[in-house]
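3.2 Worked example (two chains)
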Amino acid sequence: MNLLLEIKESFVIAIQAITANKLRSVLAALGIIIGITAVTIMQTAIEGINRAFNKSIEAVGADVLYVQKFEWFGKEDWNVYKNRKDIKMANFDFIEKNVQTAASLCPSAGSMKTLKYGDLSLENVFVIGTTAEYQATLGVNMSEGRFMTERESEGGYPVVMIGADVKKAFFENTNPIGKAIKIGNYNFRVIGVVEKQGSLLGMSFDNRVIIPIELFFKLYGTKRSLSINVKAADIKNMDETKEEVAALMRKTRKIPFGGRDDFGINQQEAFKTTYESLTGLIKIIGTMITMLALIVGSIGIANIMFVTVKERTKEIGIRKAIGAKRRSIMMQFLIESVTICLLGGIIGLLISLPISFAIDAFILPTAIPVWIVVLAIFISVFFGVLSGFFPAWTAAKMDPVDALRYE
C-alpha cells in the first residue's frame, strides 16, 4: 500500500478511536494540555520581557561608557564606593583634552526637583545638568523643538529640554515650546521635548529634564560627583576606549601604579549580563516545571495506549492475517498517540493565548511570535511519538495467531 494511503488510513482510524472514547482521550491529554499551556505562557512572558528590556536598554547606549563614582553591579561593600573621591569637572577636562578613541563625551550631574507650570506641579523629576555634547554622546532624539546649543550650554542660559512624561503632565494638549516652567524657584524656557525613551528596572527615562551644566552648578552647587559619558569612536573597539579612559582617569586622579581604581566604568553590557543571568535561572526553573508536566502527561498517554493495544489485540491479529505489515500497525498506534498529544497541544495553545493577552494587559509585557506556536506544536508531536512508541512497538511485533486467540 502506498505510504500516503497508509498514513491517511491510520489517521482516520486514530480519529475514530479518539471520538469513540472522548472522555478517556481528553483525560489522557490533560498532562499535555497543562504542559503546553505552561510552556507557552512562560515563553510568551520571557519573550515579552526580553523585548521590553532590549527596548529600554537602548536608552543606555551600547557604545557609551559611563565613568562614575559607583559601579552599577559592584560587589564591594557600599561604604567602599561611598568613600571614594567625587568625580569633578577637572577629571572631565583632562579626559576631554587627551582621549583619542572617543567620538564625543560630556559630563552630567543630576538632582531631584519639583517642577511647576501654572497651577500644576510635578514632584521628584530628575534634573540633568550637561553640555550640548550630551545629544551626540547619548544619542538623544527630539520629538519637538531642539536641543541646546553650545552657546546656551557654555553661557548657562535658562533653557530646558523636557521628557515625554513632563510634557504629558504640563502640556498634554498644547505646544510646550517657548513656555516657561519653574524648576525649584527658577524659571526656564522650554526649547525641546525629548523623544519617549521608556524605563529600565522601574526607572523612567521620560520623567526628567535637561538644563545647561553651568547653570546647574550655579543653582545647585558643585559639591556632587559627576558622570563622564564617553561615546566610543568605534563600537568594535569598546575595550580599547575603556582601557584608554581608565588610564586617563588613573592619571588625573593620581592613582599610583598597582593602586586600586577609585571609580567605575559602567556600560550597557553590565545590565545585559545581570539580566541574562536572572532570566537564565527563570528559564531553567520554568523549563523543569513544564517538562515535569509533559513527562507526566506522556506517561498517562502511554498507559492509555497500552490499554488500547490490549483492547484491539484481535483487530491487530485480523489486520496482520490479511497482510498488514509491522510498519502499518506501528504507524497506526503512533499516529493515534501523536493525534491525542497534538489535540492536547492545540487546546493548551487556545487556553494559553488569552491568558498571555491578559498578563500583557495587567501584569507583565508578553509577546507571541510564531516560533512559540511552532515550538508548542513540535513539543506536542515529540511527546506523542515518545509516549506512543513502546505501545506501538508492542502491537507491531504481535504474532497474528496469538493475537487472534486473545480473549
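3.2.1 Second chain
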Amino acid sequence: MSWLDTFRTGFEAIRTHRLRSSLTMLGILIGIAAVILTVGLGEGAQAEVRGEINALGTNLLIISPGSSTSSSGVRGGFGSASTLTKSDADALASKTVAPDIEAIAVTTSTSGSLTAGTTNWTTSVVGTTDSWLQVRARKVDTGRFLNAADETKSRAVTVLGSDTAQELFGGSAAAVGQTVTYNGVPLQVIGVLSPSGSSSSTNDDDQAIVPYSTATERLIGGTARTSVGTIYVEATGSSTLSAAYQEADQELLQLHGITTASDADFTITTQDSLIDAATSVDKTLTVLLGGIAGISLLVGGIGVMNIMLVSVTERIREIGLRKALGARPRVIRRQFLVEASTLGLAGGVLGAALGLIGANVLPHFISSPVAFSPTASAGAIAVAIVIGLAFGVYPATRAARLAPIDALRTE
C-alpha cells in the first residue's frame, strides 16, 4: 500500500466515524487553543509592561524613599517614607558630583478635586520642576509647560493631562487660559500634555502638573512640604546609565550619613530591573497556565489512544484479512499511526483557529492584550501531531502484532 493509499484510508476511517473522531480531537483542540492563548496573554502582557516602562523616559533611574531589606520586609516604609528631600536632588544635579547625570526631576504628589465652574474632577496633583518634561519624555499638546520662573515665583499655574482637560473643559484647546481651583487655590491652566497612551492602573493622562514650589508652599501639607516622593534621574546616555547609578547611589549615601550600602534608606530602580521584575511575574504565570494547557493535551492524547484501541478492535477482521493477503506489520502499523497523527493534526489546526479567534475576542472582555503568535501556533500544531503519533504507537503496534489466523477467527 502506498503512502497516498494509507492517507486516503486513514481519512476515510476518520470521516466514517465523524462524531467519535470529533470527540477525540476535542481534548487536543482545547489544549492547543489554551497553549496559544496562554502564550498570547504572556507576550501581550510583557509588551504592554515594556511599553509603559519605556514610556517613563529613556536612560532613566527612579529613586524612591525607603528600601527593601533582605530579611524583614521593608526599611523606612518603602514607597511612602520621607527620606528624600529636594536638597538631595539639587546635589545630584551638580555636574561636579555626578557628571554622567543629564537632568533631574523631583515630584511630590497628592490627590484631590479640581473645580472648573460647576464641574469637579478628582485627579492626581503632581508638583515638579520644569525638567520633568524632558526626563519623562513627555510632550505638550497645547500651550506651554512649566518654566524656571514658574518655579522661582511659585506661580499658581498648572498643566493638565489630556484626560483631565477633557473631563473639565471638553478638550485641550478649550482648557488653556481657563482657571481651575484646588483646595480654594485658583490655578491658571497654561498647557495640556499630549496623551501618553498609558493603559496601566496609574493613568498618566489624568493629572495636574504644578510647580514644585507651588505644591509644597500652597497646596500640599504634612511631610510633603520638605520631602519628595520620587527623584527621576536621566543619564547622559545608555552607556553611562551604570555610572550615573553609582554616582547617585554614592552621593545619597554620603548625604544621608550611611556607610553601608545595604543600610540605604532609598531605592534606585532602573527600567531594566522593572522590566525584569514584570517579565519574571509574567513567566511564572505563563508556566502555570502552560502546565494546565499541557494537562489538557495529555488528556487529549489519552483520548486518541483509547479511540485508536477501539478502532483496532473494531477492524480486527480487516487487519487479519490484509495480513492474510500479504500486508506486512509495518504497513499495518503505519496505517494506524497515520490515523492517529491525522487526529492530532486536525485537533491542532482547529485549536489554532480557536486560539486565533480567542486572541481577537478576549481583549474585549479583559483588560490585558493578547498577542497572537504564528510561531507559537505552528509549534503547537507540531506538538499536536507528535501527541497523536506518541499516543498512537501502542494501538498501532498492537494491530501490527496480530496474527492473521487469530484475527480472522475473531467474531
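3.3 Remarks
The CA atoms of residues 309 and 395 lie 5 Å apart.
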